[in-house]
């Protein structure tokens, strides 16, 4: 299995997962031109695009990629009302949070609390390989942990540092939105979630969707690394990684 982060953050998200030679893309928040610049794998090899929600940093280029390369888009039916006009002539398949299969890869969607029309995360499994994408959530609720028990690699939102947000340039209303129960996960929250996932068997955590204004990769990494050191008898085989906005990273 390979996790290829083509970019992660509020300016665009796209994560390509390879399992046994098959590729599934989660979100496409870039123009086609920008995606081509970032990705050297032929789009024709993508078996599916999984959409998490309609915010443009996840949805911007879904329609163009799907239409031009005949790639099916899987999404919750609830997103139809806000996405359908930009998915004309695309092969859209509704999953309604029910497990389905793409090229032998089991895909399980699960609901996340976020201020979009409807937001889901995805778990992908094939044989011993498993991955989950968990970005854009205001808080980690119990169902999240139920869905992620033992998942090998989790791409987890670590959006903002609580101090940086508090003292930063955002207007108060936006600060409340970001830190609210339907906003985004902070580094401090993400550290706790990581510890709980690792204690249930997760081996790799990729911190993702870092805010440009209220976070820096070193701080996101250090916050979780220190928490893991302090609270878990942390095994050296556990890998903590950071996905970035402007770098393509292969994990
Ligand atoms: Zn986002
Ligand atoms: Zn969002």
What this model shows, in words?
The chain has helices at 32-38, 56-59, 62-69, 80-83, 142-148, 162-167, 172-179, 187-199, 217-231, and strands at residues 2-7, 14-19, 22-26, 46-50, 73-75, 92-94, 100-102, 105-111, 120-126, 129-134, 153-157, 204-208, 239-242, 249-250. The radius of gyration is 17 Å and the shape is globular. The protein is built from nine helices and 14 strands. The strands form two sheets. It has a seven-stranded mixed beta sheet, with no helix packed on it. A seven-stranded mixed beta sheet has the order 7-8-9-10-11-12-13. The model has no long low-confidence stretch (mean pLDDT 96). It has a single domain, classed as Ribonuclease Z/Hydroxyacylglutathione hydrolase-like (Metallo-beta-lactamase, Chain A, 4-Layer Sandwich). With 251 residues, the protein is an alpha/beta fold. It binds zinc ion (ZN) (2 copies). One zinc ion (ZN) is lined by residues 10, 13, 55, 57-58, 136, 209.
CATH superfamily: Ribonuclease Z/Hydroxyacylglutathione hydrolase-like
CATH topology: Metallo-beta-lactamase, Chain A
Could you report the average pLDDT, rounded to the nearest whole number?
A: 96
Shape: globular
Unique ligands: zinc ion
Task: State the total count of DSSP E strands.
Answer: 14
Low-pLDDT segments:
none
Highest CATH level, the class: Alpha Beta
Percent range for β-strand residues: 25-35%
Q: Which second-level CATH architecture applies?
A: 4-Layer Sandwich
**N-to-C SSE string, H for helix and E for strand:** EEEHEHHEHEEEEEHEHHHEHEE
Summed up, the helix count is 9
**Helical/strand content category:** alpha/beta
Strands of the largest sheet, in order across it?
6-5-4-3-2-1-14
Q: Report Rg.
A: 17 Å
């Amino acid at each position: 299995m390979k996790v290829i982060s083509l970019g992660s953050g509020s300016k665009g998200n796209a994560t390509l997962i390879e399992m046994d030679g098959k590729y599934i893309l989660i979100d496409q928040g870039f123009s086609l031109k920008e995606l081509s610049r970032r990705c050297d794998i032929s789009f024709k090899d993508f078996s599916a695009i999984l959409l998490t929600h309609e915010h443009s940093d996840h949805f911007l280029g879904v329609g163009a990629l799907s239409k031009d390369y005949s790639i099916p888009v899987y999404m919750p039916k609830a997103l139809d009302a806000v996405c359908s006009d930009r998915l004309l002539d695309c092969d859209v398949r509704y999953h309604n949070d029910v497990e389905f299969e793409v090229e032998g890869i089991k895909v399980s969607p699960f609901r996340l609390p976020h201020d979009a029309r409807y937001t889901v995360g995805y778990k992908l499994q094939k044989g011993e390989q498993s991955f989950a994408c968990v970005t854009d959530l205001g808080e980690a609720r119990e169902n999240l942990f139920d869905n992620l028990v033992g998942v090998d690699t989790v791409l987890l939102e670590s959006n903002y540092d609580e101090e940086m947000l508090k003292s930063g340039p955002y207007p108060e209303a936006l600060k409340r939105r970001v830190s609210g129960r339907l906003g985004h996960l902070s580094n401090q929250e993400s550290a706790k979630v990581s510890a709980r996932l690792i204690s249930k068997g997760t081996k790799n955590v990729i911190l993702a969707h870092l805010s440009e204004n209220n976070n820096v990769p070193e701080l996101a990494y250090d916050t979780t690394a220190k928490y893991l050191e302090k609270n878990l008898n942390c095994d050296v085989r556990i890998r903590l990684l950071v996905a970035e906005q402007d770098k393509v990273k292969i994990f």
